[in-house]
């Protein structure tokens, strides 16, 4: 056996494929760390909501893309973080929720408009139709529900709506599934019930606001 030189650089890879793999893993690591710093900065008011929201959305999008690229080597984000001793609970929470804190904890950012109402109504109808058409896979339902929850966040007082909190909980559930995984028939029925309840609550809130004007 040839002697090992202590001055020789230790390389993680010997082939181009291995180099590519470790490069992708390094990118995923950096995204998680960046997301954790961003979350902590937002909590400390070191960045404004206007600065935070697009940055967080971009990092979450990059995370989802990167996770697909390393899916053969990373079974879950929890396993990845444990493997590399990553202690970033704020990033892990944001990843599990799948939307910025400004959406999860809706702020009273401004007046509702007829355009917002129309868009949110369409999001409700589209999502409920998807369930009625027996769409069950995460990659079918998650984008639609994400649009719906994001639409909720634009309305004053929406963080107090029971239906919105239920939608966020479902979003977290879907976000924890693999793209090809499907919800059960029982889950689908419960989800449709919760969305219908949220839809009714949404319109009641609009009526209350009109009556109070």
UniProtKB/TrEMBL annotation:
Positions of the VPS28 C-terminal domain? 112-207
GO CC annotation, single: ESCRT I complex
* Transport listed as a keyword: yes
- A Pfam match is VPS28
How does it sit in the bilayer? Peripheral membrane protein
The UniProt entry, under SUPFAM superfamilies, shows: Endosomal sorting complex assembly domain, VPS28 C-terminal domain-like
Query: Quick check: keyword Protein transport in the entry?
Result: yes
Q: VPS28 N-terminal domain location, by residue?
A: 1-105
Give any single GO term for biological process.
protein transport to vacuole involved in ubiquitin-dependent protein catabolic process via the multivesicular body sorting pathway
Q: Which PANTHER family match?
A: VACUOLAR PROTEIN SORTING 28, ISOFORM 2 VPS28, VACUOLAR PROTEIN SORTING-ASSOCIATED PROTEIN 28 HOMOLOG
Q: What is this protein called?
A: Vacuolar protein sorting-associated protein 28
